[in-house]
UniProtKB/TrEMBL annotation:
Residues in EAL domain copies: 24-276
Entry protein name: Cyclic di-GMP phosphodiesterase Gmr
Species of origin: Sporomusa acidovorans (strain ATCC 49682 / DSM 3132 / Mol)
């Protein structure tokens, strides 16, 4: 009967599950206001060329400074933003902000760096994604070669052919494409050949494990070698120690990013560091 099933339903949604749903709904409502209320902020983490020992670019990393929750990690709100479609507005803001910051540095005489921007699959599958990138570049004046889009392997699971075509179009514009978190998913090096990418970012889980003589360490070395054979720029992320740094240098890794060099910095801090 309705009464019995009602009871079951009530039992099923015990208090903690009910709380979770309320919490998520509130989080979503507050996230919806984050862009108009200017609560989102980009942090910038240097990407350094190991051969010349110089910063050549930065990755833009999103932070949400919520008046209710404090600083919220992207690991917590990006999945919700993707699930609700809010990532479309958020991602557009990120792209504009990062390109404008990058071009602003150049115009201000602080160097010609590139901006690496994380792109979610939900953004990429929008019909107008390529046009959006073109518009943002035109609007901010950033030359396409100074924009790198970071995509993850999962991006390529959905609507594979369509996404490849879009990435090829972006490549023709001059925009660079990096495959982020490589090694954390399922893609093989042979599958990489099908992708119109210019760089490979080795997942920090591999970098974490680097100690001379370890198997994962050897894997990292092989990834670098094979990626080079395919003409890709190799970026190691999450580099924290001297040991990791030395190993990567010995293996000819092109770029490094991580606390060993610098944590992600707020725009003001980043600019101040450039002036040093
Ligand atoms: P990701 O793109 O792989 O970014 C690298 C993450 O490693 C960042 O975490 C960064 O702060 C962190 N990291 C940097 N150096 C080190 C290090 O030496 N050691 C360790 N342990 N970690 C380091 P963060 O900023 O929390 O971002 C997490 C993820 O959230 C990013 O992973 C990315 O997938 C996503 N994300 C961040 N910003 C955006 C965005 O604007 N759009 C989208 N779609 N995703 C974003
Ligand atoms: Mg990234
Ligand atoms: Mg990564
Ligand atoms: Mg990641």
């Amino acid at each position: 009967s309705a009464k019995t099933s009602g009871k079951h339903t009530f039992r099923f949604f015990d208090k903690s599950m009910h709380d979770l749903i309320v919490e998520k709904t509130l989080l979503e409502a507050r996230l919806r206001e984050a862009v108009p209320n200017k609560e989102l902020k980009l942090y910038y983490q240097p990407q350094c060329n190991m051969k010349i020992g110089q910063m050549e670019g930065f990755e833009a990393l999103l932070r949400w400074q919520s008046p209710v929750y404090g600083i919220v990690s992207p690991l917590k709100f990006i999945p919700l933003a993707e699930e609700t479609g809010l990532i479309i507005a958020i991602g557009k803001w990120v792209l504009k902000e990062a390109c404008a910051f990058c071009q602003g540095l150049y115009v201000g005489g602080q160097g010609r760096l590139w901006a690496a921007v994380n792109i979610s699959v939900v953004q990429l599958i929008q019909d107008n994604f390529v046009q959006l990138v073109a518009d943002v570049l035109a609007e901010t004046g950033l030359p396409p070669e100074y924009l790198e889009l970071e995509i993850t392997e999962s991006v390529l699971m959905e609507q594979f052919e369509d996404n490849i075509r879009k990435l090829q179009e972006l490549r023709r514009m001059g925009v660079r494409i990096a495959l982020d978190d490589f090694g954390s998913g399922y893609s093989s090096l042979t599958y990489l050949k099908k992708l119109p990418i210019t760089a490979l970012k080795i997942d920090k889980a591999f970098i974490e494990d680097i100690t001379f003589g370890d198997t994962n360490t050897a894997i990292t070395g092989s990834i670098i070698e094979l990626a080079h054979e395919m003409g890709l720029v190799v970026v190691a992320e999450g580099v924290e120690t001297k040991t990791q740094f030395s190993y990567l240098k010995q293996k000819d890794c092109d770029m490094i990013q991580g606390y060993f060099i610098s944590p992600p910095l707020a725009a003001e801090e980043f600019t101040a560091k450039l002036r040093e």
